[in-house]
Design goal:
The complex is a heterodimer of chains A (about 210) and B (about 675). Helix content of chain A is about 70%, strand content about 0%. Chain A is mainly alpha-helical. Chain A is elongated, with a radius of gyration of 24 Å. The N terminus and C terminus of chain B are likely disordered. Classes of the chains: A mainly alpha (about 210), B mainly alpha (about 675).
Chain lengths: ~210, ~675
């Protein structure tokens, strides 16, 4: 710290004259505050799902009641997983549409994303009812509690995502999402892709990896 | 900025559309003084002050619980508290002190200081900032309301399963603890996102990461720890909630549950938690010591990187809380080693602080005394911490008062002494008057005495084998004398806190007859001392351009060829003048943060007592979120949360004379 100082501007007023005191970039990183905030939130969500996935791995062998192998219907869940993954594609198309200023097209793709997400949720509800009918209640075994909590938690995340998508369509219809706010769509899209990616992990861990 | 014409779908801007009525339920409040301004404020300084005030309120509650514990243990076979009540009191003491005192005081300093230290006008998301505070406050009140609604939690602040199950704890105390901490967790998480974005995105021109004041660095690291630690606790608490409320089997041993699951999840959260509590205090001390030693901090990069190292390594030591839980020799060995390693970056910091003071012109003002108190007391606590990394020794000490002594030396002797130093140091900046120095010094010595009288004897008691969390002890084990000393110490400590509170009011009364305190009462080093005291709402006008670490100091001082310090400018020349703030665009206040936060405890009461009430809470929350989103923006040109260094009217020619009506409106909204 022994830098020698001879003459340097000392007046606070000099700050106002600095060439870079009026930078055009809005943020230091170049990423907008809201987008960076969403990334950080999603990073935190990883740990939340991490805790639940760990719990499931610990408890996936029940001491009583139906076992995973007995009740899982892999083709069915694979299909609904495929539907959810396709919704990421429509989400990307929606973001691309708003960036080109095509509002009507954006609303169509967002609506399609929400519909695909809702299909996935419907599939999950159907799957849960089948499991319950086959004797796997929430309190049946350590496996059942962990399974319903993990997949249900993910289902709640998808549902919140659907609500956000529907809200986007409504806002857009009222003219509240102009091009310069296109990033709102992108940020909801980030959340949506995250929820999809988490499902890839959950689907692999819960359904595909043999115990 | 010139988007006014070509955006037919834009949000109607207040300036260009006269017939516009806001979409939101409320118009944005405008009060700047009075109670309403505090309820609706989004100003990081007011929010920081409210965090501090709420934390001191909870400190008095948690401190009273500590005094009850010490009175119960004054003599063998104490009868003040029953065993059941004692369990509740020590659980609530720990919970209150960790979650409602130390963490929020850290948040108070982070909120108040980070924008000032990086040269920003506010945080990245001002409304989310307000929401964080209200959610924390309501969560804290919610937890403590359990005292009136059937008794507090009684499982210890770590709430080990299956002891926390309904069978062993049938009252609602643990439900209150669980849901209340989920609420404060949401608050911490929102705060962490907010402050990290603020530091990464909103630094003044020239303020690179490696020029930031060390407090900002340490607060940044601790916000990252919060970001990743809180969700782990939340996931564990969701499991506990489902177990207690909905008969799930996560901790139901009869269905094959593993009690170690809770311990792992809790301590994966819990150990980063202790570092995120101590790091803000480390940061404060790293800014205070150079000021009063009149030397730059010794090894700025070492201090910064050791803080980051603590942040990373803090994730690899959690199981040292579990050496006696039967995790096996390999785990124990691994975590013994990592625990020894993490002492290294902590030791680096102690060394740097000592070297900062070495050869300095030390001035022993109250902030300095408290900072030296941290360095010494934390070192004692750190040494007993390293002792615990030796697993056989830890096995001997687990659940004895030796552990109690250890963590009070690091959390009280470390974090809290640092916070006290911070209070005395930044009081003039926040409130415009100095705390009385004589009382401050008396406060320090009384606190040091009381602290050591309380917790040093606990080392002895622990080595003698006195167990923690047991409500009484029998005569004849040699526990009597040191327990009496500790109880006397606890009351000394309480009186030092009382002296601090007295000092606040006494100094405020005396300050009326004193000249106003200038912007820079301590001859400070970092740019927060550039702004007038108390800090104006707009913080900086203009935003300073930073050229090096301790920028403000080097605006005042230069060095001769021989390395001798010479004053090159008076404080008045380099400090900023208070301006009317016209032309500085600030975020408008909002009702929605407090409304949203209010819905959370309602929903939580509902989960305990009636799901209908939970529905009401959920409706408030959802409604508030939509109100929040639909709230008219105060700045038509930018998204609400998007505040870079603003152009403003007073800064010479190049700031582009506002070309549209919008910019004029902008000035008015400051009003």
């Amino acid at each position: 710290m022994a830098e020698s100082l001879t003459s340097r501007p000392t007046l606070a007023a000099a700050d106002a004259q600095q060439a870079h005191a009026h930078i055009d970039a809005d943020t230091n990183t170049g990423i907008s505050n809201t987008k960076l905030g969403m990334w950080l939130f999603l990073a935190s969500e990883c740990l939340l799902f991490g805790g639940l996935i760990t719990t499931y791995l610990l408890y996936k062998h029940p001491l009583e009641g139906p076992t995973p192998q007995e009740i899982f219907d892999i083709p069915f869940t694979s299909t609904s997983s495929f539907v959810l993954l396709m919704s990421s594609l429509t989400m990307v198309l929606a973001v691309s549409a708003i960036e080109r200023g095509e509002h009507q097209r954006m609303r169509v793709w967002i609506g399609a994303t929400a519909a695909l997400g809702a299909t996935f949720i419907a599939g999950q509800i159907y799957e849960f009812t089948v499991f319950v009918r086959e004797g796997l209640g929430f309190t049946t075994s350590r496996f059942s509690s962990a399974f319903y909590t993990l997949t249900g938690f993910h289902g709640i995340h998808v549902t919140i995502g659907i609500i956000m998508l529907v809200s986007l369509v409504l806002l857009s219809l009222r003219g509240k999402i102009p091009e310069h706010r296109a990033e709102t769509v992108e940020i909801v899209g980030l959340y949506w892709h995250f929820v999809d990616v988490v499902w890839v992990v959950i689907f692999a861990v819960v359904y595909l990896i043999p115990s | 900025m010139a988007l006014t014409e070509d955006r037919p779908l834009a949000l109607p801007s207040g300036g260009s559309d006269d017939g516009y009525t806001p979409t939101g339920v409320f118009t944005r409040p405008t009060a700047e003084t009075g109670a309403r301004s505090w309820f609706t404020t989004v100003d990081h300084k007011k929010i920081g002050i409210m965090y501090g005030a709420a934390a001191i309120f909870f400190l008095i509650i948690g401190g009273s619980e500590a005094l009850l514990i010490r009175m119960q243990l004054w003599a063998p076979r104490g009868t003040l508290l029953s065993a059941n009540l004692y369990n509740q009191v020590y659980t609530m003491h720990g919970t209150t002190m960790v979650f409602l005192v130390v963490m929020p005081i850290g948040a108070a300093f982070a909120n108040y200081l980070i924008p000032l230290q990086i040269g920003a006008r506010d945080v990245a998301f001002p409304r989310i900032n307000a929401f964080s505070f209200w959610a924390f406050l309501f969560g804290g009140v919610f937890i403590n309301s359990s005292w009136l609604l059937g008794g507090g939690a009684d499982g210890g602040w770590f709430m080990y399963a299956p002891n926390s199950g309904v069978i062993f704890s049938p009252t609602h105390g643990i439900d209150f603890w669980n849901l209340g901490l989920i609420i404060t967790g949401i608050a911490s998480l929102a705060g962490a996102v907010n402050l990290i974005v603020t530091v990464l995105n909103m630094r003044a021109p020239g303020m690179t990461l490696m020029r930031m004041p060390i407090f900002t660095w340490m607060a940044l690291v601790s916000q990252f720890l919060l970001l990743f630690a809180i969700p782990v606790l939340t996931s564990a608490q969701v499991l506990l909630m489902l177990d207690r409320g909905f008969q799930a089997n996560f901790f139901n041993v009869s269905k094959g549950a593993n009690p170690l699951l809770w311990e792992h999840l809790f301590w994966i959260f819990g150990h980063p938690e202790v570092y995120l509590m101590i790091l803000p205090a480390f940061g404060l001390v790293s800014d205070i010591l150079p000021t009063f030693a009149r030397k730059p901090i010794f090894g700025y990069p070492f201090i910064v990187f050791s803080g980051i190292a603590i942040g990373f390594m803090g994730w690899g030591v959690w199981a040292h809380h579990m050496f006696v839980s039967g995790i096996g020799p390999i785990s124990v060995t691994t975590f013994s080693l990592t625990t020894m390693f993490i002492a290294v970056p902590t030791g680096v910091k102690i060394l740097n602080w000592t070297a900062t003071m070495w050869g300095g012109k030390l001035k022993f003002s109250s902030p300095m005394l408290f900072s030296i108190g941290l360095v010494t007391m934390f070192t004692i606590g750190g040494l007993s911490g390293v002792m615990h990394s030796v697993a056989p020794m830890d096995a001997q000490q687990t659940d004895t008062y030796f552990i109690v002594a250890h963590f009070h030396y690091v959390l009280f002797g470390g974090a809290f002494f640092g916070f006290m130093g911070g209070f005395y140091f930044y009081w003039p900046k926040a409130f415009g008057y100095m705390l009385n120095e004589s009382l401050g010094k008396a406060n320090f010595w009384l606190m040091l005495l009381g602290f050591n009288l309380t917790f040093a004897p606990m080392h002895v008691l622990g080595l003698q084998g006195m167990s923690r969390r047991i409500y009484t002890y029998d005569p004849g084990y040699g526990f009597e004398f040191w327990n009496k000393v500790a109880t006397i110490g606890a009351f000394t400590l309480a009186s030092s806190i009382a002296l601090f509170v007295f000092n606040i009011f006494y100094s405020k009364a005396k300050a009326k007859n004193l000249p106003p305190v200038g912007p820079d009462p301590w001859d400070g080093r970092t740019i927060e001392w550039m702004v007038p005291s108390p800090t104006p709402a707009y913080n900086f006008d203009p935003i300073p351009t930073v050229t090096r670490v301790d920028d403000f100091w080097y605006r005042k001082y230069g060095e001769t060829k021989e390395g001798k310090l010479v004053r090159i400018a008076s404080t008045a020349e380099v400090a900023q003048q208070r301006t009317d703030g016209k032309g500085v665009h600030l975020p408008s206040p909002s009702y929605w943060p407090i409304v949203l936060a209010f819905g959370l405890p309602i929903a939580a009461y509902g989960l305990i007592f009636s799901l209908w009430l939970a529905l009401v809470g959920a409706i408030i929350v959802v409604g508030a979120i939509y109100g929040w989103i639909m709230e008219p923006p105060d700045d038509p040109d930018k998204a609400h949360d998007d505040h870079g260094p603003d152009a403003h009217a007073s800064d010479g020619g190049d700031a582009a004379v506002p070309e549209s009506v919008d910019a004029v409106k902008e000035v008015e909204t400051v009003g």
